[in-house]
Amino acid sequence: MAAVSTTPRQRISWGTANFVVIALALIPVLWLASLSFKTPAAVLDPSFIPAQWTWGNYTQILSTSQFIRPLVNSIGIGLIATLIAVVFASMAAYAVARLRFPGKGVLIGMALLIAMFPAISLVTPLFNILRAIGLFNTWPGLIIPYIAFGLPLGIYTLSAFFREIPWELEKAAKVDGATPFQAFIRVIAPLAAPGMVTTSILVFLFCWNEFLFAISFTSTLASRTAPASIAYFSGSSQFTVPTGPIAAAAVVITIPIIIFVVFFQRRIVAGLTSGAVKG
Amino acid sequence: MSTPVQTVTTEAPARAPGRRRKPPLSEGARAERRLGWLLCAPAVIIMIAVTAYPVGYAIYLSLERYNLEVPQAIKFVGFSNYGAVLSSPYWWQALKVTVIITVISVAITLVLGMLLAQVMYRTLFGRGSVRTAALIPYGIVTVAASYGWKYAWTPGQGYLSSVFNNSAPLTDQVKGIAVIILAEIWKTTPFMGLLLLAGLSLVPEDLQKAAKVDGATAWQRFWRITVPLMKPAILVALLFRTLDSFRIFDNIFILTQGAHGTGSVSILGYDNLFSALNLGIGSAISILIFIAVAIIAVAFIKGFGTAAPGTDIEKR
Hints:
A: mainly alpha, B: 316 residues
């Protein structure tokens, strides 16, 4: 593409196209940010840019456990679920990409089915099961379902990455006397690290985003995650809608995503597409 | 692709075409099998424990009268919960809303996603920034984005509402659904665009050039070359988006809570569990949604033929 000479007209039309895409993607986010900086009085002003800027909404939400605790829950649950899901998924993906064993097709089919699974179908039975085994409103009560839904994503993405690895190295390691397990840990895992980072980001984003389980399987701040907690924000009185604090909380939970996206854009694109679409 | 070394034992290979008896496995192949199963076991156990088992349990619950408010009245009632759901106007209303949201949002997302993919693929400069910007709607927490849309459409408060004459679309069924669809499209077009981009990058540039030399217009090239070659990518993207859209919950929960006839089947299931505490009816709804999703998936996979995701993993 770089070799193609460009006319000014082409530059203008592609520039316009780029601008439209970027504007459409960002305006709703900027609106949320603008709301979060509006004073309680100015919230009722529909202008896009706040007339008066304030940090008040942020100090309000970050000074109570109503939001801090869910934020901690979100980070903790997300990290633990991601770690376990990625470890288990890389084991399975290694087997899928590398080993011959009966049942591989079943595993892939099962992962695909779960990726398509309607989460709501699990809410009622899991609600009852989690209550029965005492995991309702606890971290594991969310972590376990998140692992189950992170696994298919992980297995798909990682097996796509694993197929790109130069496996001769593994053979060489085996010739040198390594067991298959050692070959996996010593030789393949370091080569697979970029794919694993990408997969971890995707799985973490899924956990960070999840809402249905988060409101169904939690009842207090002990395990409620940030997205779920926002839905329970209340105003300073029964009749005030907490628009500003909600917007501020929404911005806070969006920040990690923007950081991921800005730093790992290439990886995320590669990860999303490698798992789902191949030649 | 190299295949793992398979040592064949000295036994003569099985002669009969019917594979009555496999040749005995060598030690290495058997170890490989064991390792394969061992490595997959944790993933398989968790996936089954969290999905297959609860669905089985939901089938059982759906056959019982089971209301948490009257726990002493738990009783096996056969299919009467299904009868109650299927004869309820709420179910059909929610199903209709869900289908409308799914069909319209997926159709529009496909068109916009294709445009987005073209921009991401062909733009002459700023490709990185376009992709980064496009990933933000994909990555943003749905609940956060939904609040943005909700306030944008709140009269006296939102910039979109003020542009449209201080309208209050979220208090109206048709307009409410339109806003839900808009939020859904904004959020999911990037994902569609990225999947289509992956398909687009597999279309050989030479083919496009040859067609151009032969005098094909851009429109003809798109329909005759790009689309047929992208068919697998398009089908995968459509499948994922359709199932995702059919499960819509977060958006509606924040935007309208399902009021004014804007609830999806997922909202209905949630309400039956947490407002009515009716596990029997809630489970029946769960199973019906599961069946609906299974029908969509099977229909799509039939359409895929060999292009179903995962088939190539087995081949290699």
